[in-house]
Fold each of these.
Amino acid sequence: MKKIFTFLLAAVFAVSALVAEIPNEEITTVNFDPDQITHLDINFAAGNVKIQNAVRNDILVTITREYDAPSVSTKIEKGTLSIKTKILSSYKKKIDIVVEIPFGKNLGQTKVTCVSANTTIKGINTKELFITTATGKVNIENCRLPGNIKIGGASGKISMKDSLPDYLSISAVNGEIELTDITSKLVKTEVAGGKIITHSLKTEAFEAQSMNGMIEMDFEEMISKDSWVKTSGGSIGLTFPTGKGYKAVVSSLNGQFVDNNTYVTASACENLVSSYKEGEPEIKINTKSGKITISSR
């Protein structure tokens, strides 16, 4: 009996050791000729996707996935490098995708569609950028984006830093939008319950809307075209460069309005004009109960 017990115990240890040596993920790398690729299309569910520039002559795709995750296909069709899984929305297994783009390579369109995956894009040049996610975070840094940029999310934070998008449109449900050191012709942001925050924004015009979230916008340069901002219950704070003029047209049902430059205040108003230094760009501000503050740096 003792010998049988010893044998079984040894067998259990042997199987445990064998299982421990089996890796729980698979790593695949694929190389592509950058001259054959104009567009990039990534479509999958959970995990992380990173697109970044690198010192190399080819485009390198590295895929790390759990063994029971769906397989990932990579192919070039009519100039588009497509990276996709067979199952998108119903599969929760983690997949990490890293795409390295050579310095100086210009893409026509970059598209990322995912469910809960986090998206990070650093240092690339792409004319158009479209990102759609449900709960994943989106982070964009140091990108040249000379075209239309459209990002949509539900509850994940969307942030962009040190980038040059010509036309930027970001929408989120409960997620936060944060823009830092952005230069653009037009910036459009919209959230339901989340925040909109900008730092050192340079844009010709802006459109910002929030249902209940706070809107705080800091401008490095004064806008040159008419703009607007709306909210229901959230507060609005606009900070402009010192000494730059504007014309604020404010409508508020119950919220308090304070212009620290003109010393105009109101607790409820309709089309109240607060003009500073005879500024030409008109800023329409609408709120129901949120506080509105205009200041200078």
Amino acid sequence: MHTPVFRSVEDAYLALLRLATTQYEHRIDARGNPAREVIGVAFRLPDPRQRLPYLATRGANPVFQYAEALWYLAGRRDLEMIGYYAPSMGASSADGVNLGGSAYGHTLLTPAPGEEVSPFEQVLLLFELYRQIRHEHTVAVSPDILGALDPALRWLAARRWEACAAAGGPR
């Protein structure tokens, strides 16, 4: 994969706008807004000072951006922490305590009711299962851990678990 290098965020932004305008791969309609999409785009900014966009007209708040990233990574959806950095987010809360749809970290990192593992952990288990299958390891993943995953994957995990148990147990 070729990763172009840009001097600034602005240079990268303009180049990516040209790419999405002239060489887009897909047309999408996200929430009623038609757009063009290019998948798998990457770029480098060698100067660390250029890695944050500073647009006076946009009113970017780098402190909030870092706080929001940490809020997502912590799997939180409460207003207590994020509300300190963005008090206006409280207006989007139905109960004044938590946020709903915009709390992506909570949705990805917290198990759904009745589930033992989060969607993120399920993906990690899938990657591990595929790695084991690809490398033909005898390590098995218990099928009950895979919960609501695709039935074919649960079946495959159950077969590997049984084979592993017959050989003396999981390792």
